[in-house]
Each structure stands twice: as structure tokens, then as C-alpha cells.
Amino acid sequence: MKVCIIGCTGHAYYTINGLKTRGSGELAGIAPGSPGETIGPLARLAANSGHNPIEYGDYREMLDREKPDIAVVACHFGDHAKVAAEALHLGCHVFVEKPAATTFADLERLKEAYARSGKRLSAMLAYRYIPAFEAAKAAVDRGAIGRIRLLQAQKSYRLNERGAPYRSRVTYGGTIPWVGSHAIDWLYWFSRERFASVYAAHSSEHNRGHGELELTAQCLFVMTGDVFGTVSIDYLRPDGASAASDDRLRIVGTKGTIEIGPRGVLADFGDGEGERPLPLAPRRDMFAEFMDHIANPEAPYSISAEDSFYVTEACLRARQAADDRVLIPF
Amino acid sequence: MKVCIIGCTGHAYYTINGLKTRGSGELAGIAPGSPGETIGPLARLAANSGHNPIEYGDYREMLDREKPDIAVVACHFGDHAKVAAEALHLGCHVFVEKPAATTFADLERLKEAYARSGKRLSAMLAYRYIPAFEAAKAAVDRGAIGRIRLLQAQKSYRLNERGAPYRSRVTYGGTIPWVGSHAIDWLYWFSRERFASVYAAHSSEHNRGHGELELTAQCLFVMTGDVFGTVSIDYLRPDGASAASDDRLRIVGTKGTIEIGPRGVLADFGDGEGERPLPLAPRRDMFAEFMDHIANPEAPYSISAEDSFYVTEACLRARQAADDRVLIPF
After folding, report:
1. Is residue B42 part of a domain?
2. Taking a C-beta distance cutoff of 8 angstroms, is the pair B322, B49 a contact?
3. Is B6 left (phi over 0), alpha (psi -120 to 50) or beta?
4. Is the ipTM, as predicted for this complex, more than 0.90?
5. Among A298, B190, B210, B292, which residue has the fewest nearby CB atoms (within 10 Å)?
6. DSSP state, B139?
């Protein structure tokens, strides 16, 4: 299976890891996806992992010549949709960094390109492949906490010093789509409800010179069945903090609760036994499974194109709610 | 100092504890405050603590005869405002269960009664006297985490089997005012900002036959200075859970974070030392300090009448947002 990577702003390394995990597949080419994007770090990462991809200056030329099975899109976030649509048009399956689009118009164009293509697409909703989250998901799906009524999600990042693409809405897309998309996906993936409305707020105050980057954001989603979910996002994790990200999720059901956070995965199944750690799920590799799924559509894969688009839409509606400070229906 | 207690639906025992802590003050009388309210448990608690209050059938008669310095109001929540206003009118200082009112009209009448009375009033915003919260407050106030940008608050209770007063909006007032008032107070007390708007949702689905009682609720408050706060409330804490309440607060500032929860009080001051436990503040007794403050207005007391009213208003606006599913400005 032939793979090309476009851009190295997002998590292009998922691809390298997946190729290594599967021990098959060829990284044929790499190219920048956005104006001014340098792919030196990606070239080094590829070389260190035993790959020898051709470096192209133009990703269209690369796709045209290499005709890869899979195009990985990880350029500036504002270019995800356009590049992914072109890759679909050129006959590639697409593995694209989240959010899949940063404007409603781009999302519509991407969905149309996908519908016309007959190809497969997945956004990098990587938490669906993180053992703690998979373990929680399995417990929820087997009904261990009853019916979900409430979710509380948190993403907290260190700000560090972020480059120019993060500082402009056009290239960055906003903190709710970039950081929040995972948390918004949790609400949807765990509850299996649809989004009904969202109110949100965000602010770029105190962002230490990072232009339009929103340092803080909070969202309240009402979902079908009167299920509610909050998402709290910040870039205020102290620099000395032990891990880069402080991800938390509390899922409250009619029978019990599950939470993921600094104490691991803890479940109370309402059976009188109290809180207990939930064993982690075995580690599965997202990109390796995507390759398997391309090779054999019967092979399981956890992130559908429909979910990729729907979560993107939810991010954009939340961002709109925060921009305009209005309640947005779905 | 002479004290009378009206009702025993709320936390009337704060009063008994306070009298014991201070070792002075007399519990002169007790009476029900709402139709059908029984005060047997309160009479037993008083007797067990060495008090011998006269039991009245009518609290107005009690206040008229006993002329207490302080009337404690802890009847059905929907009657708080009316009874508190009468007590002020009859010349008592008032220590009232939160929320101080369950309708906007009642809140206005209570504020007017307070303004006319020249007496003092405090709602039982008891977390301002809980050592973990006091420790966090002191750290925030000395600037240890910089400027607050974001707060996430949680109240999670066991439902158990709750009596009739909890099952009707008229007597209960709603879960956002009853359970949420503490969390809403945290946003205000810690941030020292004003509320600008609130969106909220609540639902009585799956409430195991508890009538109108909302089992779940979430609120998103935008405050002045673009400070944001979520409040998540549920009655879904499993029956076997180790403590009745699972209270959590995460406060995110420009320099660091403080959180209160199952791991205690943890602070990261952004000094490179990472997360550390914050020593608890010495325990102070809320009602004892209220008595001290009545005796001497110069004596410190943490809950002003203005704060009691403002937090009540915030609760009612959040409940309105949830009832109507609209964004409510302040």
C-alpha cells in the first residue's frame, strides 16, 4: 500500500507509527500542503524510521505521479478541506488531520468531493484509539453505566510558543475546532446521540502575543434525549506540568459513572462495589487499522467519514456560537 | 444571643453546630416554616445537643414572643424568601438556607424587606467555610495562579429517596438553585467577576418517580472580563459511592491552576514545581461567625447579603435559561 503525506503541521507522525506497526506499506512521497510550510522535520522523521520518500514541492504533482492509495493530509488547518478534496478527486483515500474543515463552505465542498469520489476518508480522531478511551467506550457500550445523561469533557494544553499558523483564524481555524474537536467527539461517540444545540464562549485575552488564538473556550451541547455535555478548553496548563495535555472526561449514566483523568480510568457501575480502575484496552494503531480497512472494507475501523464530518460540523457550530455569543441549533 | 429556627428541611443543623462551637447563644424556639413540615427531627437534634427550645406551631407567633436576635430559615425552599422577609420585618437578623428565593418576584420582595430592615442577612453558602475551599480562595486571592480565566464546577449527589417537597417546582425551586447554588457561588466568589450571561439546560428524565425534580443540569456562565465557567449538576452519584457528594472545582489562571476534588486540593503555581497539595485552612464555623458578626459588625464574616442575593439571582437566571432554552443576559 502506497502512502503520501501532505504537510507536517498536524500529527503526520501517526502515519509513520502506523506503517511501523503494520510492518508493511510504503511512504512514497512527502510534500508541503500550505504556503510556507516546511517539511524538513517530516523528512527527518521518515528517514529515521527507515523510509526514503521523494520530497515534492507541490503535493498535486506528487499525487499525480505517485498515485498513492492513501493521501495523509496534515498541513495548516485552514487548508485541510481543500487539500483533502483534491486528494479525493485525484483518486486517493484520505486520512486527514482534524478538524476536516475550518469553514462551513469548505466542509460542504469536502463532503461533496467525498460523495463523488467513492473513496474512504477518516479524520484523525485519535482518542478513539487511546486505550483508556476505548476501555471506557466498551464499558459504556455494554450498558455498564446505564443510559448516558451527562458528560463533562476537558482539554487543557500548554501554550508554549506556537508558530504563525496558530495565530490567524484563517490558517488555524480556532481553538474550539483544533483543541476541542476531540472533546466534542467524545460527547458524540460515547453518547451515540445527535447534537441538538450548542452555546459556547471563547477568548483570546492573555494569549501572550498569539494573535487571534483563543486561549480559553467553553461549550455546552444539548443532545438528543436531553443528554447534556460541557467542553472546557484551555491553553493555560503550566509549563512545568508533568504532561503536555490534561485530558479528562466524566460520563454519567443512569446506573453509574466512568471517568478518565489523572487517576486513570475509574468506573462505578452502581453495583455497590464503589469506584474501581478499569483495565485499559489493548493498544490498537489508528493508521494501521485505516490501512487494513482500505485493503479490506470488512476490517473494523472506528472512525467513519460521516463521523469525521459530523464532528467537524459540531466544532464549527460551537465556534460560531462563541464568535457571535448566540445559541446555535443543529 | 437568642436564636430561633424555622423549619428543618434544609441545613438547620448548621445552627446547632454553631451554637456548640461558640459555646454561647440560646436556642429559644423552633417552629415549622411550611405547610406540612414536621420539626420532630430538629427537636431531637436540639435536645441531643443540650438545648431546650419551645416548640411553636406558628413561626410568626414564635418570633413575636421570643424576639430572637437571629431567625434561622430552613423550611421548604419555595418558602425561604417569604419567611425570611417576615423575620426581617419582625426585627430579626436572618440566616437563611440557599437559595434565598426561588422566584424573581420573591427575591425582589426579600431584597426590599432587607433594605427596609436595617438587619443583616446571610444565605447558607456553606462552602465559603469549608477548609478546602477557603485554602483555594486564599491562594487565588494572593495571586498565586494569576488572573482567573476559566472555572469548571461540579456538584454530584446521590438521589436516594427524596420527599414530596423535592418533587414540585413550587416547593423545591429546581435543581439548579438547590444543588447548583454552591457551584454558581464558586464561580462568583473565586473570580470576583460579575455574571454577564448564562445558558443552561436541565432535565427530569430518569428521575425515578421524583416528579418535577431535575436529575441533571449544566450551565455555562460568561462573566465580566471574558471569564467563563461551567457548572455540571447531577443526582446520579451511585448509591454505593463512598461519599454523598462529589464536589469538584478547577480554577484556571494565567499563571497556574488549583483544583478541589477527590485528590484533595491540588495547586500548580506555574513555578516549575508542578502540582502539590495545598494545606487546608483551619476550620471556621459559619454560623458561629455569623453570630460574632451580629454581635460586632466589625468581626469578619464571609457571606454578605448582597452576595446572597446576587448568587440567588444567578441561580434563577440559569434556571430560566434551562426552562426556556435561551441565552439569558444579566
Report:
1. yes
2. no
3. beta
4. yes
5. A298
6. H
* Number of Cβ atoms within 10 Å of the Cβ of B110: 26
Judge contact between A248 and A259, C-beta under 8 A: yes
Question: Mean pLDDT in chain A?
Answer: 96
Q: Is A234 on the interface with B (CB under 8 A)?
A: yes
**Interface with B, mutate which of A213, A242, A251, A252 (most B CBs under 10 A):** A252
Instruction: Please indicate, yes or no, whether residues B120 and B149 belong to a single structural domain of this protein.
Output: no
SS3 content of chain A, % helix, strand, coil (to 5): 40, 25, 40
Q: Based on the fold, state whether residues B33 and B110 are members of the same structural domain.
A: yes
Q: Are residues A315 and A244 in the same domain?
A: yes
Residue recorded with cell 523510509: A51
d(CA B266, CA B109): 41
Whether the CB of A263 is below 8 Å from some CB of chain B: the reply is yes
- Mark whether A55 and A120 lie in a shared domain: yes
Q: Are residues B81 and B137 in the same domain?
A: no
pLDDT digits (tens, 9 = 90+) for A156-201: 999 999 999 999 999 999 999 999 999 999 999 999 999 999 999 9
Q: Is A236 on the interface with B (CB under 8 A)?
A: yes
Q: Based on the fold, state whether residues B177 and B139 are members of the same structural domain.
A: yes
Number of structural domains found in chain A: 2
Residues forming beta bridges with residue B265, ordered by sequence position: B260
DSSP per-residue string spanning A15-47: HHHHHHHHT--EEEEEE--STT---HHHHHHHH
C-alpha cell at A73: 493530509
Verify whether the Cβ–Cβ distance B236 to A254 is below 8 Å: yes
CATH assignment of the domain containing B226 = 3.30.360.10
With an 8 Å Cβ cutoff, is A13 touching chain B?
Answer: no
Asked whether the beta carbons of residue B215 and residue A149 sit closer than 8 angstroms, the reply is yes
Residues in chain A closer than 8 A to B327 (CB atoms):
199, 325-327
Picking from A121, A19, A29, A12, the residue whose alpha carbon sits closest to that of residue A76 is A12
pLDDT per residue as tens digits for the range A105-161 = 999 999 999 999 999 999 999 999 999 999 999 999 999 999 999 999 999 999 999
Let me know whether B150 and B264 are in one domain. yes
Domain holding B48, by residue range, is 2-124
Structural domain contains residue A322 = yes
Tens-digit pLDDT profile for residues A245-303: 899 999 999 999 999 998 899 999 999 999 999 999 899 999 999 999 999 999 999 99
Q: Is A247 on the interface with B (CB under 8 A)?
A: no
Q: Which residues of A touch B252 (CB under 8 A)?
A: 156, 216, 234, 236
- For residues A226 and A320, state if they share a domain: yes
Using an 8 Å CB-CB cutoff, list chain B residues near A203. Answer: 149, 226, 228
Describe the strand order of the beta sheet including B328-329 as a list of residue ranges: B276-277, B264-268, B257-261, B248-253, B148-156, B227-234, B216-223, B195-203, B328-329
Q: Domain for residue A295, yes or no?
A: no
Q: What angle do CA B97, B101, B104 make, to 5 degrees?
A: 165
Torsion of CA A38, A43, A45, A46, to 10 degrees: 140
CB contact under 8 A, A326 and B327: yes
Dihedral angle of Cα B55, B56, B57, B59, to the nearest 10 degrees: -130
Q: B48 at the A interface (CB within 8 A)?
A: no
